[in-house]
Model the fold of this input.
Amino acid sequence: MTSIMLENDLTHIPASVRRWLDRAPAHFIGGEWVASRGSLPVVEPSSGREIGAIGKGGVEEIDMAVTAARAALVAPEWRDAGPLAREAVLHRLAALIEARADDLALLDCIDNGMPLWLARGIDVGGTVDVFRYYAGWPSKLAGRTVEVSAPPGMGRFRGMTRREPVGVVAAIVPWNVPLMMAAWKLAPALAAGCTVVLKPSEEASLSALALAELVQEAGFPAGVVNVVPGLGSEAGDALVRHPGVDKISFTGSTATGRAIAREAGGSLKKLTLELGGKSPTMLFADADLDRAIIGAANAIFLNSGQVCVAGSRLYVEDAIYDQVVERLQAHIRSIPVGAGMSEGVFMGPLVSARQRERVRSHLDAARAGGLSVDAAADYSDTSGFYVAPTLVTGAPHDAPVTQEEIFGPVLGIYRFSDEDELVAAANGTDFGLAASLWTRDIDRVHRISDALQCGKVTVNAGGFPYPGLPEGGYKGSGFGRDLGPDAVEQCLQTKTLLIHVS
Ligand code: NAD
Done:
């Protein structure tokens, strides 16, 4: 059996991936690589070492990218290509990503810290699926023909509606599943005929830049996809404010989402916001406990809790509470934690020192508040950004650890005995992204899922995104939807034609 390492060994990285790591900082604008005037470090999460640099875009680069996207929007190569040509190029991109899946997965494993299996299966596998799903959409988009009753004396009329792309989409994404988050924005926008400026997260931009290469290879016309890495406060802010942007599609924290909504409100840009969550898992005594306990643990420890829909609050029915806590205490000590490239690893480090400090400060505050904080291990001496799987019990409903998104491997566990109280507690945060329910009682499934104020309810299983099913939030978790028909719909606008028939 190979032992699990805490640091990735980067000495034998294939040349095909090394090339992406060693690329000089640049932006992909108008189908060309434009050298960046500034740079940001790429820090490898398992070691904390700097291993490369990415471009640091600002007002000028964003302006160039939006200008390129606006030009591409009306260039005949894209606007008049026709739906089947758009489908073909999306399919080619999916195939190219699939062919380079191992390389892309390794890149995100190194950049983001996630285990290789997760990068391969969800991040890159999910990206291929999303491009394939949306590749089927262009030829199915259609308007309507409407028979019209005109006012007396005006003659015969026919009405038609036409679906048109909303225009230039600003896609701003986080670092937690870097390639797939980019794909969730790009694929529906491109299927709708929009053009895109993508601003990946400064914490993990490498796979978005690699994707730009594949976009070029797939044959998208120049300017249809542009990628400008940089800081949120610089490149992100410039993109949100740019008058050439028609729609902002943002995934990230609720705080940033609020700031973006204020700006979009002023300029009346269209907006989709996929924000944070504090999703409850509800575990009833009649559930299949063996599956439920693993499911509840995976819901929070997968990707080290850096998942928007992470099940960060576990509500356990009174009769099984002690047993479930005991089993989870044992389970967290069996979770293999280590560097993403190590075989057998389930959980890697967090993405950055900053994220580790955020999580640690939540745990310090919980301890200071007298809560029971049970960490499976202590990684305070490692240079990698590790936080152990951790359980917090006894937290009151209004405690920060119950109310705030931690975005780390921290599970709050709560006891319940009454269904109405459970629903009130589950709904009792500012968020409303997702929930999961473990019970064999079908009436209860419907009763509770109807009462939950959130965008997605998973029953008796760990959740996963499927391209045909929308993802998104109620309340403070945002509005609009990624994935499904909803996402392509939100990249279209309707034009009505009223035609006199003589
Ligand atoms: P973040 O809000 O700090 O950053 C997200 C992106 O926004 C980054 O690209 C960043 O550079 C950019 N940004 C930051 N400030 C900006 C500004 N003022 N103007 C424009 N852009 C700006 O979030 P994060 O820490 O990178 O990501 C974690 C958050 O993302 C969590 O809250 C998580 O729940 C959320 N998330 C939500 C979903 C979902 O589908 N709902 C999915 C994944 C992550």
